[in-house]
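Good morning,

Both structures are done.
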Amino acid sequence: MKKILTAVLIVSLLLGVHSSPALAKEKLKIGVMYSITGSFALAGALAGQRGSLVAIDMWNARGGILNKYDIVPVEADAQSNPDVAIREAERLINVEKVPVILGIYSSGIATPLAPICDRNKTILWITIAISDKVLEGRNLQYVFRPQAMGPQWGESSIGFLKDNFSKMGLKSASEVKIAVTYEDGPYGVSVKTGTLAQAEKYKMKVVLTEGYDHKTKDLSSLVLKLKAAKPDAILNTGYYPDIVLFMRQAREMGLQIKALIGHGAGYANFPNLEKQMGPELMQYVYNIDPIPAQNLNQKNLKKEIGPIIDEFLKRYNEKYKESSPPSHATQGLGHTWVLLQTIEQAVKKYGTPTADNIRKAALEIDIPDGGTASGYGVKFAPPGDKYAGQNLKCYPVVMQWVKGKVEIVWPDEYKTIEAKLPAPADWPLAVK
């Protein structure tokens, strides 16, 4: 009898240990903050959030972080409002106790939020906001941005025009006449600064530089100035309602140009703009952004990245009924995926996913070009650098909307078609 009781006790203990909650995966909460309502939502914030959430679902389906932690997204809506974003960040930090806040669409939100997270020793992992002022000269220790930086958008626009001036019947880049229009917040100013610096480098003629409030209800005065200045190309940095307003008023007032080049935000979602304005007005418009997942040439990627992109596109389409997600969705995917890789490295090397351990792992990350779902690599500028926390291996490209399809037109190594430049006569804003 004694032997039977001993055997039963041993089996019970073994079963108890086997089913112990201590061996179950732990939950790792991560703040996910985007503006999923308000004026920034349709400009790309909602797509970015969706990309991030799909990435987290995919990672958890693979077993989470080393089969030790499941990622639990704690969602927050910044409501396209910096004050709301700050309150939500404080909730995530002080109530939810998250080690990381992921996301942030608007530079106007990222700029005040970055030092708050830094002071609280909470990682701010910026997936979309691009202003250089978010990081420049601040030497932030807990803020990382795998996304490219604002001036690179302007540099890409000018680089594209410099390489394609002959298509407009010009003899040199110095003959190109450009107008630089921008929303006057941190995002627009950052892109404008890079644009003007690069234009000066190639001696292009800047015939108009004009900022405006992105919440404005009337841009007719800007259109009149553009008509008087007669640029070959307008390089615009806007969000969403202002883009729609500008293009409608430009058509109504008879503006004629050879190219309209947008710098991200609402320009990234060509199909949505087409629904608002019709296919004829959106035809031939350009956008600067990282390459959308479905447009990446998988031959240029590391072999493990292609299946990630394929799964992402399948899941995104099943969940949101979009087979060709905008670039912001890919930014959500690719930049979130790098964060999860970084957390995994932190757990593997340092034991636990604390903010300090994630920070140490982020500073060690060095991913080559083609090694992420965004196409480019990742290496963060170290503490003490002018742009500490900025990814030094990222870049946007120039895309054009042609016959209901996103095409890459610059640089040459990613080009899928030759740019339709100047815009053909069937475009309502084309030079007649």
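Second structure follows.
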Amino acid sequence: LEINDYNPRIKPVFNGDEVSFQIIIDVDASIIEQNSTQDLSQGQAFDKIEKAASMKLREDVLSSIRQAQNLESDIFGWGLEIKRRHPKEWKSMGTRWAEIFPTVKSDVKINVHLRKSYLQRKGFTFK
């Protein structure tokens, strides 16, 4: 698959003194290579590929978040997002952000949409 475009939406969710992040990423992708003879032009095949790609990208995003938290490095700019859009909440947590960030929970949802297929309609087998 080739990712053509993506649109991330990140929203902090406050629950008392705790913050978590809701992350939704819409991804437009194209199929550029096929290693089977299955006809991928059918709707069910596209649905399965979209679901599998969504699950894999979600795993990758969660892995990146865990790694950044293990390194105690807010590479995603979550603290800056809170500071800009929720200054009242940031005032109470800004000085402790280095302690808070490694334990922040995140809810990640990925929506992959296949837009194109650069394949023939039906694969074939060499004999």
